[in-house]
Amino acid sequence: MNILVLNGSPKGDNSVTMTYIKHLEIVFPEHRFQIRNIAQAIHRLEKDDGKFDALMNEVRECEVVLWAFPLYFMLVHANYKRFIELIFERNQEAVFSGKYAASLSTSIHFYDHTAHNYIRGISEDLRMNFVESFSAEMQDLMVPSERQNLRVFMENIVDACQKQVVTTRVFPKLSQPVLNYQPATPQKLTELGKLSLVIVTDSGSMSDNLKNMLERFRSSFTKTPEVVDLTTIKIAGGCLGCMKCGMDNECTYDGKDDVRTTYEEKLKKADIVVFALTMKDRYFSARWKNFLDRRFYKTHQPGLPGKQIGYLISGPLSYEQNLRQILAAQAETDQANLVDIITDELTTSTDLDQAISNFSEKLMRYATIKVKKPKTFLGVGAAKIFRDEMWGDLRLIFQADYRYYKKHGMMDFPQSKFSTRLMHLFVPFLRLGPVKKQVQDKTKDMMHRSQDLVNKQEQEKRKK
Questions:
Q1: Residue 273 carries which DSSP code?
Q2: What are phi and psi of 392, to 5 degrees?
Q3: Is residue 213 included in any domain, yes or no?
Q4: Which residue, among 97, 130, 115, has the nearest Cα to 323 in the 3D structure?
Q5: What pLDDT score does 432 carry?
Q6: Cα(131)–Cα(118) distance, rounded to whole angstroms?
Q7: Among residues 342, 357, 377, which one ends one of the domains?
Q8: Are residues 126 and 204 in the same domain?
Q9: What single string gives the DSSP state of each residue in 56-125?
């Protein structure tokens, strides 16, 4: 069987992801694996029509397309994203249609599911027969049971292709908003005061609706907010995956372009950051993803702590809940507060005008009183994964992260809490019949005893 592996690592053959493909080549010598380093060669594929056409011919001739990639900010690398854009821009959907597909990733299991959801959604948009995904932890190849899982994954793909299995669609087709937004002049302006607001956008991929949404939003304030347009700043290249940043947060590109300066001097000095973006396939533009990937100079540290953030989005976000989850998760892992997401999926221009006005007022109110909503599983689970990795296997490389986590109290292991350790001393006594029964009888009351005390204290305070 002819299997075309589309490699999404910017490091090409020298990547952890490709060691898994190499293992499959060894275990399944009867099948032919053709590896093409997509992310590493994206500029040649963009500029050289001959190389792109040759790749499309290889897709035509293969029986299975295996999307293989490392994780970059809850998705694939920006260069891989750009390749997906090229498929649609150059009307090559038919080349992929009917092919069997699967995805394989390597990561620390940090939002690996959102990356696989994205790739599956794209595969379904290309009318491919998507079989399944395999998400490997970077060191899984060292574990015999995980190697067996990898082999079963490959066997399932081959079996589905040979039997011409009918696959089911998981993600709905995207339906573009029908509103032709024509904004009215705001009747009431929002006072910025001493607060600073920065808008980040990518005019190179901006729809007419987003352009009008952005103008309406900017005109809603007494002082016009600054706009950072990613098409006008210098971005020398994409994240190389070199991990030079791990020791001291130094990037290979430092001093060579505007990315670090934009983050440090614009975004991090603002009280409010609003991202105005147009959906492109099931995400935003590859240039936006490049800007986001390059933020990895701060490695696994929160990117916008304490900021109020929001989104103005043109596109069918209600059909793409995977992207909505990414936005919510990004805010929580950045220790920022997601105020709202406004899209052009409303029925009338008047409704969208009102939504944007409410959004501007809400941003100011939240920034003034410094709202910080509780984290959900999206943020809590992510923090635990990073904490454990920075204490464990990744500490050697990402020493800057370890120092940051120690300094900011993020090494919050439960066994470090004295009260928890003290409580555990009494656990053996729970095996005693009378003690066990007494605890069981009082468990419901004990669960909220501390909360009752807080409420009682608040009640007494308000009586004074």
A1: E
A2: -105, -115
A3: yes
A4: 115
A5: 85
A6: 14
A7: 377
A8: no
A9: HHHHHH-SEEEEEEE-BTTB--HHHHHHHHHHHHTT-HHHHTT-EEEEEEEESSSSHHHHHHHHHHHHHH
